[in-house]
Design a protein that fits this description.
Elements: H1 8-12, H2 20-34, H3 43-59, H4 62-71, H5 94-102, E1 124-130, H6 132-137, E2 139-150, E3 164-166, E4 175-180, E5 183-188, E6 197-199, E7 211-222, E8 231-234, E9 250-256, E10 263-265, E11 268-276, H7 277-282, E12 284-290, E13 293-299, E14 308-311, E15 327-334, H8 341-353, H9 365-373
Parallel strand pairs: 1-9, 11-15
Antiparallel strand pairs: 2-7, 3-6, 4-5, 8-9, 10-11, 12-13, 14-15
Helix pairs in contact: 2-3, 2-5
Length: 374
């Protein structure tokens, strides 16, 4: 009798040199398309699903694949576990392929899921706003963090002592077993959530929640040099774990307030100091109140608008390192908006004494190159 089975590579739509990742990807797409739950009552879809599962079970097994490549379907006759080439025992990764796609849980006798397994608690985020002064010096902050604490009366079960009973739906197993075609599918019990037990008498202390809300005072050391977005981790200060699992962590996320005078760029500080036209021409000294006290900033004569003066080592401390950045003072030359008669007379005299410089300046080398390529 002629063999009516389609070629397994054709079924999955892959070439004969396809590797494991290509095989798995192809099977995922077909499983998603033809799964019986997505095609209720559609016999053709169910058969296509079985066909794809059979093809994958053979091609994902190196020995069976070698036999199939050499002898075709006849080389698989007599294989244990069902029809030629179809062996559910090779489906160890089907919970990854199908279970994750459809939420069915474990299949083919795989490990049982349990809501009673130990689970780590959730991490918690706490946003803390600090000033630039505190960035410069560092600080010890005291936080009041809302969190959940395990109810000691019910040990997080949500029930009074002795107030739990076996789930009548799953009879304490925590899961339900369904048969769909050739598949045996385990699903978490919807009534007990996989615990296998339900609460008959709610805990009087936590009102059946299993946890109690509280505010916890914590101290955190904020090192100098932190920036907006810096995260500081406090281990085990997050939410409590389930079934005796460890607590999560608390992450303190820093936000630095804007400063009215200084602007930060990484480990550098910048500020702007205004000078009048006489100070710009003759030079001057300006007193600037910095985070290190009063500093005398020397403005050289003939300074131009936008020029900058560097004060070395007066910038932001480098986080978790030695040294500091620099402070850059930007000079802003201001022209008076109104002049007295005497001021105007003096400026007119100065104008007549200075050479006229009203010719357009020659372009710099970079501007010339730019024009060449435009």
């Amino acid at each position: 009798m002629a063999d009516t089975k389609r070629d397994y590579y054709e079924v999955l739509g892959v070439s004969k040199d396809a590797d494991d990742s290509v095989l798995k990807s192809a099977y995922r797409k077909l499983a998603l398309k033809f799964h019986p739950d997505r095609n209720p009552g559609n016999k053709e879809a169910e058969e296509s699903f079985k066909e794809a599962a059979e093809a994958y079970s053979v091609l994902s097994d190196p020995q069976k694949r070698a036999a199939y490549d050499r002898y075709g379907h006849q080389g698989l006759q007599g294989a244990a576990g069902g029809p030629a080439g179809f062996d559910p025992s090779t489906f160890a990764d089907f919970s990854d392929i199908i279970g994750d796609l459809f939420g069915f849980g474990d299949m083919f006798g795989g490990g049982r899921r349990s809501a009673n397994r130990v689970q780590r608690g959730d991490d918690v985020r706490f946003d803390l706003e600090i000033t630039l002064e505190e960035v410069m010096q560092g600080k010890h902050a005291e936080l009041l963090v809302p969190r959940l604490d395990q109810c000691m009366r019910c040990k997080s079960t949500g029930a009074e002592p002795g107030g739990m009973s076996s789930c009548p739906t799953c009879h304490g197993r925590g899961e339900m077993l369904y048969q769909q075609g050739f598949l045996s599918i385990r699903r978490t019990c919807s009534q007990c959530g996989g615990r296998g037990q339900i609460v008959r008498r709610a805990c009087t202390e936590c009102k059946g929640e299993g946890y109690k809300r509280s505010d916890r005072k914590l101290k955190v050391n904020i090192p100098a040099g932190v920036d907006t977005g810096t995260r500081l981790r406090l281990t085990n200060e997050g939410q409590p774990g389930a079934n005796g699992g460890p607590n999560g962590d608390l992450y303190v996320v820093i936000k630095v307030k804007d400063h009215p005078v200084f602007e930060r760029h990484e480990d550098q500080l910048h500020c702007t100091v205004p000078v009048n036209i006489a100070q710009a021409a003759l030079g001057t000294e300006v007193d600037l109140l910095t985070f290190d006290g009063l500093q005398s900033v020397k403005i050289p004569e003939s300074v131009q608008n936008g020029a900058q003066v560097r004060l070395k080592g007066l910038g932001i401390p480098r986080l978790n390192s030695n040294g500091r950045g620099d402070l850059y003072v930007h000079v802003e030359v201001r022209v008076p908006e109104k002049l007295t008669k005497e001021q105007r007379k003096l400026l007119e005299q100065l104008r007549d004494m200075l050479p006229a410089e009203n010719e357009p300046r020659e372009k710099g080398i970079f501007e010339k190159v730019k024009d060449y390529f435009m």
